[in-house]
Amino acid sequence: MDRIERTQEKFKQLFGGEPTKCEGTDAEFMRILQRFIFGEVCYVGSLDNRMRELITITVLAVNQTLPQLKAHVGACINVGLTPLEIRETIYQCAPFIGFPKTLNAISAMNEAFAAKGIALPIESAESVSEDTRYESGFAIQSHIYGDEIEQRYAWLPGDFATEIPKWLTELCFGDFCTRKGLDQKTRELLTVAMLAAMGGDEVQLRSHISGAIKVGNTAEEIVCALAHALPYMGVPRAFNALNCAKEILIKGE
Predict the structure, then answer these.
(1) 8 Å CB contact between 204 and 163
(2) Interatomic CA distance for residues 228 and 226, integer angstroms
(3) Phi and psi of 252, rounded to 5°?
(4) For a tag site, which of 14, 29, 34, 96 has the least CB within 10 Å?
(5) How far apart, in whole angstroms, are the C-alpha atoms of residue 29 and residue 33?
(6) What is the 3-state secondary structure (H, E, C) of the chain?
(7) What are 144-190's pLDDT values in tens digits?
(8) What does the alpha-carbon distance between residue 228 and residue 2 come to, in Å, rounded to a whole number?
């Protein structure tokens, strides 16, 4: 197949329709966009449609491109992802992009769910209590990243020296990473794509690339995730992320 035929195939899989031909006011731009994303990018690398769509909605949530997010939530359903998997992908953005932006993404997601006839709220995914969120979060955090965070921030004044590291453990790892619906391998790969899309967080990106490898992602899968995210976050951020990943992926650790 040439890339026009591949675009038609992928577009039908994701959206159940036909790509742009001559319709609309900006058909030329849409043809460039669609043939690059759906005729080229989507066919390079090992990741399947399901993982690619989770990466896509993660980057769209980061960028707050909500009309496109709604469309791709629909695509997620079309390729067999469950509402729970989709919701957990959006929820886990909160510690990274903040609660207000995540609420915007949740609203767009729920509109897409309603359009698909999915009843809300969907099932609970909580697996920790107020008494266990620190312990459960620390178990995940220490396995992937060790226990040096508290020492790293011991210089902070007063209670902040203990509270800020505790917030990281309880919020990022306890409240979100313990939730049902996504395994740790998937969560870490999505986090790599999320940090790449945010930009300006090279320290955290390198850490999470190492973490993604530790929980079972291959170098090829990480590169594929960043390459798939490229059309949605732009070439500079994708190349910055690849430069961050280079030394880690060559070493494989």
Answers:
(1) no
(2) 5
(3) 75, 30
(4) 29
(5) 6
(6) CCHHHHHHHHHHHHHCCCCCCCCCCCHHHHHHHHHHHCCCHHHCCCCCHHHHHHHHHHHHHHHCCHHHHHHHHHHHHHCCCCHHHHHHHHHCCHHHHCHHHHHHHHHHHHHHHHHCCCCCCCCCCCCCCCCCHHHHHHHHHHHHHCCCHHHHCCCCCCCHHHHHHHHHHHHHHHHHHCCCCCCHHHHHHHHHHHHHHHCCCHHHHHHHHHHHHHCCCCHHHHHHHHHHHHHHHCHHHHHHHHHHHHHHHHHCC
(7) 998 878 888 999 999 999 999 999 999 999 999 999 999 999 999 99
(8) 19
Tokens of 22: 């001559």
b/e burial code for range 44-57 (CB count within 10 A of at least 16 → b): ebebebebbbbbbb
Would you state the pLDDT for residue 150?
Answer: 81
- Residue 188, token pair as written in the block: 């870490």
- Pick from 18-27, 30-39, 40-49, 92-101: least confident: 18-27
Distance CA 42, CA 36 (A): 9
Q: Is 200 left (phi over 0), alpha (psi -120 to 50) or beta?
A: left
